[in-house]
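Minutes, project check-in
Item: structure for the 499-residue chain
Input as provided by the requester:
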Amino acid sequence: MRTWGPLTAVCVSTFMLLLDVTIAVVALPDMAGSLHASLSDLQWVMDGYALALAAVLLGIGAAADILGRRRVHVVGIVVFAAASLLCGLASGPGMLVAARAVQGLGAAAMLATTLPLLGSVYQGRRRSVALGVWGAVSGAAAAVGPVAGGLLTDGPGWRWIFYVNLPVSVAAVWLTLKVVPESHGSRGRRVDWAGTVTFAAFAAALTYGAVRAGQHGWGGTGTLGTFAAAVVALVCFVTVERRCADPMLDPRLFLKPAFSVVMLGALAFNAGAFSLMAYDSIWLQSMLGMSPVRGGLVFLWLSLPAFVVAGLGGRLLHGVPARITVGGGLLLVGSGQFCTTVLDAGSTASALVPGLLLVGVGTGLVSPGIAGAALAAVPQDRAGMAGGAVNTFRQLGYALGIAVYGTVLTTRMQDTLPHEAAHALAGGAGDALRGTFSEHTLRAAFASGLNTAAVVAGLTATAAGALVVALVRTARATRTGVTESALPTLSEERAAPRR
């Protein structure tokens, strides 16, 4: 227990927080019915968590270096557990969204300290083994999420997808306090609160603008004003970071084409591979009549190949340049999304299978290597910053993808349905519309919307993949996807894990 206890403790909390990224996907239709939630409410149930996580991840990592990584990790678990309880008790969509955002803050505290805690305990070969096990657990969380969500939603109810976090959190706190030693980074560093606030404002305004566009159009005054606020916040963020002695994300790193492209790839990866799952799940349940369990099982065609390929790839693709694994994986993700653009009014769940398989294989190639590609593109003293940035951009991509694809989905539906009906259908209210519109009309509208959203997702991943192949040059990667030169810095620098 003394040898592998810290790894066990960290993996328990990692599994829990990553599970909550996808576990809610199959519960969205039940949430909509129970809480009378609209499409935008459902979008924020998913985005509130991902946005909060992305917005404060780097800032909390810096605070943990000063305050103590174990201490911040435990506080994160407690906050996550309390927010999970509030999610389960939510009486309306507003309370659920707010609780999900707080849950994301707790998850950020856990995520930001995971690799630094492992790096402070394990060295040499044990570190490689620990990172490999942690990577496998991360992949397993993605695989289990939709199925666990379906089982709990079909069984005791959707609220239990949050209640189940409570006993796991208790175990994680006990284990962490018992077996994980405290560690610190450079105590001379200051927490970049200004950078944290301005980045959070930028991310929130950008995502809110994309969600608002679905309701009021891309050219609406409020939408344009929100995007303008996002630009102002981004300018403020860059200005603050350029003048800060200890920036959470040094803007000069983006002057390196390889680093910029890897960040774009991280954003496009989560957007292209995972964001459309929320709308696929609503289609499977509200249009095809699947139960949450059966709907969740459909996504095993994505998650299981991803898990297998990631595990085998660490051995078989050892030494292959990241531009091939990451770039090629993104191209496969794009191809998979293009394969799902064949839906019509008569389609069944099997129409998604070929595309999900390709997305899963691409995910298995990208996930292990993208952090290593970022680390190899920066000096060693910026390794922690680069690792944290990868996860920040991945979660931001997930949030933006849900917002943008939802807008694309409803916009396309409006070619067939009135505005309000399109939004109600995308939000899972198919039963309420069946008295007004024929089944064929509803299914054809939803299928057309999904096809168009999948085209956008495919283009996103394909364009990013092409740029990675063309511009990224990385050092030889280890089996864990982290470059050999960067590994020694993980014990002293912040790094955020892959999804």
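Outcome recorded: The chain has three domains: 1-186, 193-243, 252-493.
No further action items on this chain.
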